[in-house]
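New to this. Please check both lines:
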Amino acid sequence: MSRDYFSPRFDRTHLWQGWQRPGAQPERQIPYDVQLITLKLADAIPQSSQRTISHAIRDYPQAQRALQRRQQLEEVLQQGKGCCLLQHPLMAAELTEALELHNRKRYKLIAWCIMPNHAHILLEPTYSMPRIVQAWKTATTRWMLMHKEELQLPTPGRMLWMRDYWDRYIPDAQEIPPAIRQVHNSPVAAGLCTQPAEWRWSSLSAKMN
């Protein structure tokens, strides 16, 4: 399970057990940078909100627009728009299983939190990050399509997730504890609970149970 404190392995000569390849083949590059990933449901940020934000930041200097756009999109994301399918316990449990499936194989989970319409995952990958994300999306989308009629899931269509994902590199080990707290505090910041441990779908709660 994920921990509150984590020391990344920045020694790039180190290979995790199970990652070695036969000597006759070249070794794969291992990206040891810790990353904070945000996955968003397909309808988590409405097109109308995106247009409003684009209009609002058009007078900002070019160098500031990307940051302003990201900050305002994050504010919209916290408002819990869309179908909020991840608030269904079985859907949240399926995403949890998908995250744990390759833990300590393709990556090491550090902290995670599943919100109603998005999820934050802090991890140290040892595999292609786009492929890791695609595996999560594929598993959960397949499950959703198989069970949406049975469970009457309020799905956003056949596409469960937005095509992209947000990532933030954490190159300094000192930045990891604040990032862990940020992940666990997400439901408190969104007004969904008063203490991080009260939120069921996070690595903090999973560790305590």
In short: Residues 129-151 form the longest helix (23 residues). The first strand starts at residue 34 and ends at 40.
